[in-house]
Every structure is written in structure tokens, then in C-alpha cells.
Prior knowledge:
Among the domains are: 9-38 and 271-327 and 351-384, no CATH class; 61-237, no CATH class. The protein is 55% helix and 3% strand. The chain has helices at 9-20, 35-54, 72-79, 86-94, 96-103, 130-138, 140-149, 170-188, 192-208, 216-237, 245-260, 265-289, 304-324, 332-348, 353-360, 369-383, 389-418, and strands at 446-451, 454-458, 474-478. A three-stranded antiparallel β-sheet has the order 1-2-3, with helices on one face. A hairpin with a 2-residue loop joins strand 1 (446-451) and strand 2 (454-458). Helix 8 (170-188) runs parallel beside helix 10 and helix 12 (265-289) runs antiparallel to helix 13 (304-324). It is globular, with a radius of gyration of 25 Å. The two termini are 45 Å apart.
Amino acid sequence: MYRSILSNAWLVAAACLLAAGCKEEGQPRQRLVSEAEMDALKQDIQKTVERNRSRKCPRAVLRGEPLDGPAADDILAVVEGAADTRACLNELKEHNDLLDEAHSYPRGQVPTGFPYRLNRTAKPQPEAPEQLLALERACEPIVQRIQKATRHPDACSPFLPGLRGQPSLISAVRAMRVASVKARRLVAKGETEQGFELLLDVVRFSQDLCRGGASLLETMVAATGVASALAVLEHSLNRPEPIDAARLAQIDDELAALIVTHVHPAEYLRGEVEAMSIEYLADDRRARGKQGEHPALKTAGVDVRDDIALSHMAMHELGEEVLSGCKPSDPPIRCTGHIRKLAARYAENKEDHETVKTLLKSALSKDKTIPIRRRIIDILKSMAAPAHDRYLVRDGQIRFQLAALRLHAAYRRLAESSKTCPELAAFDAPPLSERRTDPYSGEAVRIEQLGPGKFVLRSPVPLGKQGGENAEPAMFIDCPYR
């Protein structure tokens, strides 16, 4: 996957075409962006990098004594490897299929008596094969690093724009998955304290992976990785064996903390805008290194650095429009609605080919440079209208699942206290009613009773694919005291 509104080669080429019709090589190149403007753009980008380098991301640890220093080194050890984690990363790469098979059923397979849903279901814990146990042993250092990372109170992602090159984040997904598989085995063995704590640490690690303003790429990787922990949490809360009331209270409290500290869309959308700016600076340096030439634009009639700058200006303006309607105080669903309206507006006003042809007939005379430049930027913006709503919806699924799991933990605590299964009406009274708010929409989680002690928890707003409720995410409660 890649960022959807970054300056791509086709956008740069479009800037060239719209600006001058791509004059033949050897003809004079008309400058559309002055060196002073370009220097100002780069200075702003450098300031962004410096802010990210000194950024702090305080958040409370889930439990225990906080560790000194930021979480970045421990996160990097999981993603990029360190002396104690490289062997595990190699094993995870080699045995990825085994890990996926051990974790969950194929999509659509659910416990008997429950409907199809979008999110996958964790398998019951069988007798673990030796190969899987060997993988767990090899990956103990990486599991420890995940848990250690969550104990730092300063938890900015090390992948904030400008801090380092873009890594392959698949290792983070595999690491979260192997930690979830281990936690499932611990809970199945009756070691519920260690198992549940590890699962909640995986959730916190996924949040910290994109905390502080990482881009959409890190945010979606985190959503992919944490899916395993959420599935195992649900499976473990439905275990037939008793769960200690104190353990359920701890799960309730820590899920509440995770919901509050989940990264807001305004934060990762800002990171996406900043990542676009960093891309511009890298493109400009590459262009300067080739004396104004670019492999894809050798016949451009406009200086390639102008092409890059115009694309950057368009993408930056578009990013600012995205952020203008998504504030940290807004419910996430409002951000999704704003982006959808923005995309619809640009789609409605998208320039057609005839308009472009008309513009291409305009000469780049001195008195027309500024209005034509403005028109070029506007057209580039319409060509790259944001389609971020699907990312925010995916993040909304995670938010809903966290709230549903907290509601599940509170329900299971009531069930444990009476050794019976509370009926549907229990969800309308405290303490369950106090936990029904969906953090994505602000509305109450919908609850459907399938039978005694069997419930389906659904989002109050659409968060899935077209095709009705069964294409939506859902969480299951299967009370053992029926």
C-alpha cells in the first residue's frame, strides 16, 4: 500500500503538461516557482522535521512502574530488528503461513450459532505443535520488547515524517501476531494475568506505532497487526472456565485507557500531510542532483523542480483542507464525513479534458504566469482529491471493537458474580449502560440477543462493506453460564 495523495510521477507529469505542454528538449524552460519560494517551502519542511525530532508523546502506562526514556528504541527493535530480535524476525518471515494458520479461522468462519461478520475469529487453542512452540521460544525477545515499549511514558512513533526512511512494516504485523498467539496459549493454560496483559500490551504497541503524527501507512499497518490481539481478546473473554473478578476489572480499566489514548485521525492525517512535504524535499534533492532533469520528464518544457514544487503546493493545500475539518476535539466520524464531502466536491468540480486543452493553448507570457500557476494547482488538487475515508473507517472498526470488548469484560464480570447469564435488559442499566458508547461515532453500541447468553454487538454506524449487516464488523458474547 502507499499514500494516496502524495506527489506521484503522474501528478508531476501533469504539472508539466498543464504548465507548458511539455516543450521539446533544448527549448528554454519557463520558471513558474521562484528560487525564493522554493527556499521558503524547504525551510517550512525542515521546521516540520525539527518539530518531529523534538516531539514528545506523553501517555500513561497501563500498569507498573514507567521506564525512563522514549519508547522509540524498543519499537525499532520490533520493526527493524536489534541484536536480540533479528533471529525472531527471520523465523517469523520463514514461518509466516504457520503463524497465520495458528491464529484464526478463514474469514467468515464463526462459532456455531453466530452470524458471518467482517472481522476474523480466533481459533480455539489446540495442543500447540512443536514448530509453533519453537517459534514462540525464538520470539520471546520480541515479545519482551513489545511489552517493554508500552512501559515508556513518552511513546512517539520513531516513524514520524522526516526522522528515518520508510521501513517494511510487515515485521511489526508478524510480531504482534506471534505475541497474540502466545497470549492465547497462556490464557488457555489458566495463566490469565500474563495472557490478558500481553494482549492489551499488543493493543497499546499498535497505537504507539503511529502516535505523534505518523502517516496513514503506519496507521493502517497498526490496524492490521492489532486485529489478532482483538480476536484473541474476544475468544479469551468467552472461555468456559471462570475468570477472576479482579482480572476482569483490570481488563475493563485498561481497555478504558486504551480507548482514551487511541490516536485521533487529526493526528495521523497531519502526519500524512507532513509526509507529503518530506517527499517533496526528497524529490527536489534528486532533481538538483540531475541538474534539473528527471528520468521521467526528460522532455519537459518546464524546469523539473517547478513541476515538483507545483505538485507539492497542490498536495499541501489539499492536506490543509483535510485538516481544517478534522480537529482533535471532533468525534472521528466527523472527520470521515468531512473528507467524504471534500472528495465529493472535488469530484463534482473535476476538470474535463476540454478545459485542460483550453488551458494548454495559453502561452506562458509574463502576465499570465500567476493565474495559470493558480489554475494548475487547482487542477492538480481536483485530480488528487482525498480518498482517506476508508482509512478512517478501518480505524473506526478498531475503536468500536475496543469499546465492545470493554462492554464484554463488564458483562462477563456480572456473569461471574452470579454464575448466570444476564439478559438483554442488563445492557440498559449500569454498569453496562455506562460502557455502551462507541468512541468512533459517540452513539450507543447496538446489541442483538441470539439466545440465552448469546449476543452480537454491532457498531451504531456503518463500518463495513456494501452488502448489509453481515459485511459489518461485529463482536460476540458467548456466556458460559447458560
